[in-house]
Predict the 3D structure of the following.
Amino acid sequence: MTGSRWTEADVSDRPRRDPFQCRLARRRRLDPAAGEVRAPDRDRVRAVIDLNVSIEMAHPAAEIWRIIADFGQDPRWRAGVTTMAPDPPGLVVPGTTADESITFGGRVHHTGSVVTSVVPGTEFAWRMISGIDAEGGRSVVPLAGDRCLVTVHLRIRLRGLQRLRVPFLRRGLRHKLQQDVRRLNDLVIARA
């Protein structure tokens, strides 16, 4: 080598490195003997959409609870829900399952869910067991007089290329949930 330049002889003597091997060399080496393993793709960081939508209603909490805690009532107040088949029918209890068909974003989604916890007259939580990776809940809190605060919670975890749609999905889902609680209020007013 002369000065700061490589001569042709020096260049030909250097071992060539495969670009793919270079990328592998930059990755942190894992030691399987020490229990280190690379996480599979499905366990890598996901994009999460977490929404809470509330509305104050001029109706008794018990009346609202009878509607939001009965999955069979969902097609009446949730936009896009075409079928909702709870087992067992009636008010939710821990372990209640539901098969749902819902249209969102121009597509029909078929999902299955199970109720994970219930505080009778107040709140319940659910999670998806098929279809979308999601969980959520509904609650009703009595306020002064015959008023109550209804809250619908939804958390969706997106994987792969779905993560690119987070801004659009978040906006669309928030709008849908806001419409749903308004439709619930209109349903209760119509029943009164």
